[in-house]
Amino acid sequence: MSRKAEIIDTQVPYFYKAQLIMDQPANKIFEFIANPANHSVMDGSGMVKGRISGPKKLYLGAKFGMRMLYGIPYAIRNQVIEFEDQRVIAWRHILRNIWRYELTPLSADSTLVVESWDGRNALLTNWPTVKSSARWVPKVMAKTLVALDEVLARK
Fold first, then answer.
1. Are strands 88-93 and 98-107 parallel, antiparallel or unpaired?
2. Which terminal CB of the chain, N or C, has fewer other CB atoms within 10 Å?
3. pLDDT tens digit string along 119-136?
């Protein structure tokens, strides 16, 4: 049975968070997230279709390209802007939206995972995905965390 992730009300426009406690060690979760080939497997939006370029494991400054779909197929290039091994990873693309994962170990086999999406410094706040972000981003982040938990439970 699937668990529900909690959507956190930040009360900050264009800044959203969701969290879920996973019965997995932080290192296992981090290694999965740090491989961009896994992003389409855990994506709750249905927009991420696969990795097209970049390393198998991300690191600070790493660049990676992803196949995407939002009405029409497109590709986007991201760069890792924060990296603390086993704890924090964040990346952004050309429009400066930031996706961040923060992992807090609660025990050897339990981890609080917080995903955030930060569009406060987005270059184009009138871009459709940014402008409508409050309606859909928190929900798909929660779906992403549940999907991540389910995928890792099977590994």
1. antiparallel
2. N
3. 999 887 766 676 778 888
Paired tokens of 68: 């995407």
Q: Does the domain spanning 6-153 belong to CATH 3.30.530.20?
A: yes
pLDDT given at position 128 = 67
54: alpha, beta or left? (left if phi > 0; alpha if psi -120 to 50)? left
Least confident piece of the model among 42-46, 57-61, 138-142: 42-46
Which pLDDT value is given to residue 27? Answer: 97
41 in the Ramachandran plot: left (φ > 0), alpha (ψ -120 to 50) or beta? alpha
pTM over 0.90: yes
Asked if 78 and 84 touch (Cβ cutoff 8 Å), the reply is no
Per-residue pLDDT, 2: 64
